[in-house]
Amino acid sequence: IDSDASTLMQRVVKLTKPVISAEYDSEQVTAEGNIVVNVTTAAEHANGYSYAFNGTKKQDYESPEGVCRVTTDTPGEYTVTVMAKGGLFDENSIFYCDSETSDAKKIMLLSAPSEGTIEKTTDNKISWQAIGSVSGYKIVITYTDGTSTTIDGHKYTSYVDKSGKEITSVSVTALGNGNTTITSKTVTKNFNN
User: Which end of the chain, C or N, has fewer beta carbons within 10 A?
Assistant: First the structure.
């Protein structure tokens, strides 16, 4: 039996690139802190989203909710991207394939100065290791009489304490900008006087 040849045409459309936001859910780096990525402009007909952190696929979500949380307290810069996953047909039998990757969002988790770099001289000059990308440092100086002094937003990696009191410990925190650069953990150095 001979029949005429037939042609099947399928319309395939690439999903629109998602628009994302990324933030850290704590003001300071903590063991329970999460980088939270939200799809703020969803891709219509998406079959979920694929999330990549520093180029490595981290999580796939089959649901189109568009939120991903990754718990980390490891200092460093994180580049986050998202791709809308295709694989679905719409009501007009149009097939949707994966989108292009979203524009990258970056978050920097600051490291704290190393405890071993915090030093105190006999004239109460305190110094510590410089950390890149900081907006300043928070210093807490504790004295033998139990009192303390806090210097918030200090721009340099040294400070001269002119209280005349004996210092028992110094805590240093590298300060972020509250947006894309996240404040470090606090490191404390105790001094045996």
Answer: N
How far, in Å, are 24, 108, 178, 181 from residue 28 at the CA level?
9, 11, 9, 10
Cα Rg, the chain, nearest whole Å: 26
Q: Which of 20, 131, 157 is nearest to 84 (CA)?
A: 20
pTM of the model: 0.84
Cα 30 to the center of its chain, rounded Å: 11
pLDDT band at residue 70 using 50, 70 and 90 as cut-offs:
confident
The pLDDT of residue 112: 94
Which two tokens mark 95? Answer: 């097939």
C-alpha–C-alpha distance, residues 96 and 190, integer Å: 61
User: What letter would DSSP give residue 112?
Assistant: P
Query: CA 141 from chain center: how many Å?
Result: 29
Type of residue at 69 = R
Q: How many residues does the chain have?
A: 193
Predicted local confidence at residue 64, as pLDDT: 58
